[in-house]
Amino acid sequence: MAGDSNVKVGTPEEAVARIAYLASDVVVSVQPSLATDSEFSSHLKRFVNRKDQSLVAKSADAVPEIHSVRHNADPLLSVFAPIRAGRLVSVTTTSSILLSSIAHLYRLASLPVVLHVALAPKSFPDYSAITSIRNSGWTFLQSESLQEAQDMALTAHALAIRSGKGVIHFFDPTSSASNVPISPEDTTVVRDILNLDNVRRFQAASIAGSGIYADDGRVALAPEQVESPPVGSRLGGVSASEVESAASKATSHTSSKTSQQSVTSSPPSVSTATTIEPAAPVVTSEHIYNYVTSIWSSLNELVGRQYNAFEWTGSAKAENCLFIFGSNTALFSEAISQAQGDDSFANAGILTARLYRPWLGAKLLEAIPKSVRRIAVLEQVSRKTTKWGPLLIDVLTSIKSSVGGVETIVGHQLGYISRDTVTQALRGIFQNLTSEKPIQNLEVGESKPPQQTSEYGLEKPKIETAYTKILDQLFGDRAFIANSLESDNAGISDTISASPAFGFGALLARKERKQKFIAEVKEAAGSGRFLTETPKRSLAKWVASNEDAKKAEQAAEDVVSKLTIDNSRLSKTLLENKQFFRKQSLWLVGSDAWSYDLGNSGVHHVLASGENVNLLIIDSTPYSERAAADANRRKKDIGLYAMNFGNAYVASTAVYSSYTQVLQAMDEADKFNGPSIVLAYLPYFGEHDSALTVLQETKKAVDLGYWPLYRWNPENENKGEPNFSLDSERIKKELKEFLDRDNKLTQLMRKDPQFGAVLSQDFGTEIRAQQKRKAKDAYNQLLEGLFGAPLTILFGSDGGNAQSLAKRLGTRGRTRGLKTTVMAMEDYPVEDLPTEENIVLITATAGQGEFPQNAKPFWDAIKDSTELDLASVKYSVMALGDSHYWPRKEDKIYYNKPGKDLDRVLSNFGAKKLTDIGLGDDQDADGYQAGYKEWESRLWEALGVANIEGLPEEPPPITNEDIKLASNYLRGTIVEGLNDKSTGAISASDGQLTKFHGTYMQDDRDIRDERKAQGLEPAYSFMIRCRLPGGVSTAKQWVQMDDISNELGNETMKLTTRQTFQFHGIVKGKLKPAMQAINRSLMTTIAACGDVNRNVMCSPLPSQSKYHREVYACSQKISDHLLPATTAYHEIWLTDDDNKKTQVAGDAVQDFEPLYGPTYLPRKFKISIAIPPHNDVDVYAHDIGLIAIKGADGHLAGFNLLAGGGMGATHNNKKTYPQVGRMFGFVKTSEVHIACEKIMLVQRDHGDRKDRKHARLKYTIDDMSVEVFKSKVEGLWGQQFEAPRAFHFDSNIDTMGWTKDETGLHHFTFFIENGRIEDTAEFQMKTGLREIAKIHKGEFRLTPNQHLILSNVADEDLPALKTLMAKYKLDNIQFSGMRLSSSACVAFPTCGLAMAESERYLPVLITKVESCLEENGLRQDSIVMRMTGCPNGCARPWLAEIAFVGKAFGAYNMYLGGGYHGQRLNKLYRSSIKEAEILEILKPMFKRYAAERDEGEKFGDWTIRAGIIKATTEGRDFHEGVAEEESDEE
Ligand code: SF4
């Protein structure tokens, strides 16, 4: 194997793994869990990663497939498909799986599979795992040392191939623990022994099989010529001919004795009985013996090590011998060899079975020296099923029936023996053996090893508990999970008690017990044995209602209290079983392993029983692996099976897709009077997968219809309701067919016609290829009539630049008389490439030198192609990138990498360059334009169309300003777009306009690729943001918002950094209802986004409610004052479709925007109000920041006004920067909205409307200077700013927990991590808050740090609220100081600008640094850490003490040195670092901070004092003196 020249092999598992790898096409690696390696799999993975090749593969460079399977997921099932396909399969496993795989073992025995079995438990293996399967028809080989493990592994493979039958190679791994490491196998020897001719013969013939569970009647047949050992070779002193004759004698001898001794002892197959096979004989034990001796003989010749069917060690004159079937043979052998002459066991011999099955009695006789009189058989078998040990019976039958000198054979049970106890054990054995009346079955050694280490536990993956937790929440004590691991099944092993079959039995027993109890109760009710009268009535009532959960619950309470009062003997007896008074919700948990053999599975049993039992089946196959898993194992659809059965409630659910649907399904299942099957999707690759992986896999599966969400209730029919409800949008073909058959689909579509369109696009239709073809052909037809040379322009675009360049190039080409075609690379049929004449590729650079999404399929198709011949094609590439994006020298290769890759590959295929690659660099003064212009002129030159006269003038590109102007005050064609049912999207220009209405179009990026692959448009949906000045909402509004998110959105809400509600996942059809619902709750969304004044923020100040009211009123006043005046919002969203009266079309209405004018503002405009000492709104970060100033009378006097703060920036563009607001001066309360207006107007007229990256107020002020800008404002206003008044800030975070305000009302600040309001199985925060809102009389305040305050709680209302808070764990604020001070923006999956994860990742990152904070005593310290997915800066990262801003997937820029109370910007510390580097940087830094900080010194201040980072004084020096200078060297 590669790189193994100096390696030594240290463990038998490694030796075995190496051989298995070399000798297999597929290795099934049985593991404790997918995330935990076995002793074999760690090696196998290493070989695969190195791409080591197998010796048996058909193609020279093939690497074997390693198929990892969990030990409790029916692992041998994975063997059938590949072995039947003519691939050599081996399995590496411990013995723990053997017994439960017995059915498979019988079927696999006639196939050349090799099982390498490490005996378990490791501390003291139980050999009964082997003896109990000894008659399954396999050949068994045993190895007892490291070297033997290598040799027997090889023998096993060679023997399987030669005999065509299964071979089990077993060994106790600890027996060889003290062996010296051995040399790795010699591959030449391996190749010789395996015999590649035999290998090819097997691989050439795939085995037809009817199915895994049907016996296909296959029996292994011997090749025409029975092999004999090479002529002249001697086997352990016996000549080849002697072997032949001995072998035949052995067979005739043994076969007449017992069928157990033949390999063909597997159950007779149908075909053996009925088919006449005149040619080759069935493989017999004789054949096996001949093959194995031939293999060993060759091995001996090649490596000089000899093996025999039975191994004898010791004197040839021994009288006594031990036949050991257990660990420690070496230990016994050593003790015997060191024995003194007077020791009873001196000179004893030892026998072991190398070839355990077929059992060749005659060979045993040959192996035993004639001198032997007594044999002690030692069996290490813990689980005894027969009186006599299996080996003892084998030995007895072989020896007693023969004529020989053996007089005594005594069986012993071998316990744990150590070096210290071996002599003592030997003495005991020999004393017994040589006594007159030896005791059979004497135990020797300790029955238990000193320390029993636990082996593969039946531990369920943590994530899998999600569903059982829900059961617990829903039904509490009523839930009874019959086969849960925690259930108490005394004396029954975990493996059995956790099995569904056991669980089902337990459920039935429990039901019977309940029936008996009911009978007892009935009898009791009629008896006179109570002391009081009342129990009788209660009991009778209970009997009548015990089947109805709700009634039973009430009746149960009554009965229990009456019985307790009665206190008679009878009462006490009944109370002993009081759990039966309540209706139990009986559940059985199964896995998708059942779906492979439905007819024999627990599913079938439950359905057929008709019992009122609920089955929860968890399917964990990841969507991305479904194809591979299904092909191998032929999974069936349990849902369909159950629906076809007819009598069951069936639901298909996925907790990571819809939590509420799971609740609904489980509740319905519980109520259904009959069997219920709830299928639950929980896909994961490894048990330690993060919730994010599970979520992403779930989304793909549900969205594309692989795992549809539905509920089927046969009882609905009686109520006149449809049986079937679809809870997701797409279904797969089989389900559609089922519904079609019953007309259910028509009913469904009639009921909800919108489903029609999606339902007809079922999962699995491969339409992408045809689509591409059709589009291209249509385009070609269009071009038909044109003259000129053809030019195909393909683009790969990320942010849109490459696409618009390509389109413009296309237009320019056409004006030059070329036949141009422009398309995204992904839409281009690659097979057409060789037929192109001229082709141009324009590509952007994504992430770390990757191709943009819409170019990936094209690149994947060509990069490894071996067939493309582009000799007649001319091409050129234009690459767009940023030479500083990855500033480290070693990362320079990423600059324009996709373009360069394309250029190289096309040239390799023989294409000729039209002109050299063009390189556009964002760092150039003109951006990529400089490189582009130069390349374009070269291109026209090369195409001979450079100097064309009279080219028409090009229309300028449409800008946002054009869109606003042409929109007729924000109307555009939004209404038409909403009515277009053919797409989930709206047009790009309407997309800009809807922002002004508070909604953005987005698409789910988690499933973007998957949908593309299916030929579907992206999963478009809308984000809606409310306008909520100061973040104050009533309790009623909270409930209304909660309803909207459940009914119209994605079941979650986000509390944003601008103190408002945001909904995600609202599909186009639900957009208008959602807007109307928001308006009904007396909120609006107008101007929540767009180039207007956005939601006005205000410190929530729970500690001073009266003062808060005064300041908050100003935020409302400013918000109202600056609202756009257009009536478009009302027309579009709030009128009914048929309300023609208020519906105003097109230009009919002339709106007027007194403040904004028809083009509104150049860019967004943000205002916030801070109430010192709290700077929780980050007052410096907004276009206008107002600092409330309290007058001497304790009332609001006015505000200090800051202007020109702003967060947005662009990576590597030094012209952009975050900025802090500059002080303009003091304004009185009555004037504040006017001052804000005037600042907005100056910005309206002077802001940059050409370059949106330079359009914010901060740039206008910086370009104009504060003085000039301020004077313009004062000029418009007619007043002057007063001198600023004194104020003081001490932090910008929220204080969690309870506060009491000056009026005596209470306020509680909840910790809502990153503002996400959602329910999970672990934490029902959303439900909890809803319950609280239902009874809360005060208000809610959303905080600027995305948390939530329960405000204005009176003393008398406290207890009820506290109870609810405790019930839903909402009173928990015990988090680290860093977590409490953290904040992240949304980013993936919905934000279109996100370059990296944020909201879903920051909590994970914090968890990883918390232990380090703890170690350094910093757990309670507030360190402000923020993260955003891009430099747009929604979570105001630039003011944090530590910030991470997304650069590419998994990579972040790190910033340090922000001021603790938001007064100072931070600065770039490291570029593009990933998690490992982040942790490497942070950990030592925290340590230093803990040791070096001054009293009360904050982290941000310390990083500056310690010289780690320079202070940023204001935005314009943000890029100065960064810690990591970008390297300019190429
Ligand atoms: S900061 Fe960027 S990634 Fe995060 S939500 Fe805002 S725009 Fe999206």
From TrEMBL:
<comment type="pathway">
    <text>Sulfur metabolism; hydrogen sulfide biosynthesis; hydrogen sulfide from sulfite (NADPH route): step 1/1.</text>
</comment>
<dbReference type="InterPro" id="IPR029039">
    <property type="entry name" value="Flavoprotein-like_sf"/>
</dbReference>
<dbReference type="Pfam" id="PF01077">
    <property type="entry name" value="NIR_SIR"/>
</dbReference>
<dbReference type="InterPro" id="IPR029061">
    <property type="entry name" value="THDP-binding"/>
</dbReference>
<dbReference type="Pfam" id="PF03460">
    <property type="entry name" value="NIR_SIR_ferr"/>
</dbReference>
<dbReference type="InterPro" id="IPR005117">
    <property type="entry name" value="NiRdtase/SiRdtase_haem-b_fer"/>
</dbReference>
<dbReference type="GO" id="GO:0005737">
    <property type="term" value="C:cytoplasm"/>
</dbReference>
<dbReference type="InterPro" id="IPR006066">
    <property type="entry name" value="NO2/SO3_Rdtase_FeS/sirohaem_BS"/>
</dbReference>
<dbReference type="GO" id="GO:0050311">
    <property type="term" value="F:sulfite reductase (ferredoxin) activity"/>
</dbReference>
<keyword id="KW-0963">Cytoplasm</keyword>
<keyword id="KW-0408">Iron</keyword>
<keyword id="KW-0004">4Fe-4S</keyword>
<dbReference type="InterPro" id="IPR006067">
    <property type="entry name" value="NO2/SO3_Rdtase_4Fe4S_dom"/>
</dbReference>
<protein>
    <recommendedName>
        <fullName>Sulfite reductase [NADPH] subunit beta</fullName>
        <ecNumber>1.8.1.2</ecNumber>
    </recommendedName>
</protein>
<feature type="region of interest" description="Disordered">
    <location>
        <begin position="227"/>
        <end position="274"/>
    </location>
</feature>
<dbReference type="GO" id="GO:0004783">
    <property type="term" value="F:sulfite reductase (NADPH) activity"/>
</dbReference>
<feature type="domain" description="Flavodoxin-like">
    <location>
        <begin position="791"/>
        <end position="940"/>
    </location>
</feature>
<dbReference type="GO" id="GO:0046872">
    <property type="term" value="F:metal ion binding"/>
</dbReference>
<dbReference type="InterPro" id="IPR045169">
    <property type="entry name" value="NO2/SO3_Rdtase_4Fe4S_prot"/>
</dbReference>
<dbReference type="GO" id="GO:0009337">
    <property type="term" value="C:sulfite reductase complex (NADPH)"/>
</dbReference>
<dbReference type="InterPro" id="IPR009014">
    <property type="entry name" value="Transketo_C/PFOR_II"/>
</dbReference>
<keyword id="KW-0349">Heme</keyword>
<dbReference type="Pfam" id="PF00258">
    <property type="entry name" value="Flavodoxin_1"/>
</dbReference>
<comment type="function">
    <text>Catalyzes the reduction of sulfite to sulfide, one of several activities required for the biosynthesis of L-cysteine from sulfate.</text>
</comment>
<keyword id="KW-0560">Oxidoreductase</keyword>
<dbReference type="Pfam" id="PF01855">
    <property type="entry name" value="POR_N"/>
</dbReference>
<feature type="compositionally biased region" description="Low complexity">
    <location>
        <begin position="238"/>
        <end position="274"/>
    </location>
</feature>
<dbReference type="GO" id="GO:0020037">
    <property type="term" value="F:heme binding"/>
</dbReference>
<dbReference type="GO" id="GO:0000103">
    <property type="term" value="P:sulfate assimilation"/>
</dbReference>
<dbReference type="InterPro" id="IPR036136">
    <property type="entry name" value="Nit/Sulf_reduc_fer-like_dom_sf"/>
</dbReference>
<dbReference type="GO" id="GO:0051539">
    <property type="term" value="F:4 iron, 4 sulfur cluster binding"/>
</dbReference>
<dbReference type="InterPro" id="IPR045854">
    <property type="entry name" value="NO2/SO3_Rdtase_4Fe4S_sf"/>
</dbReference>
<dbReference type="InterPro" id="IPR002880">
    <property type="entry name" value="Pyrv_Fd/Flavodoxin_OxRdtase_N"/>
</dbReference>
<comment type="similarity">
    <text>Belongs to the nitrite and sulfite reductase 4Fe-4S domain family.</text>
</comment>
<keyword id="KW-0411">Iron-sulfur</keyword>
<dbReference type="InterPro" id="IPR001094">
    <property type="entry name" value="Flavdoxin-like"/>
</dbReference>
<keyword id="KW-0479">Metal-binding</keyword>
<comment type="subunit">
    <text>Alpha(2)-beta(2). The alpha component is a flavoprotein, the beta component is a hemoprotein.</text>
</comment>
<keyword id="KW-0521">NADP</keyword>
<dbReference type="GO" id="GO:0010181">
    <property type="term" value="F:FMN binding"/>
</dbReference>
<dbReference type="InterPro" id="IPR008254">
    <property type="entry name" value="Flavodoxin/NO_synth"/>
</dbReference>
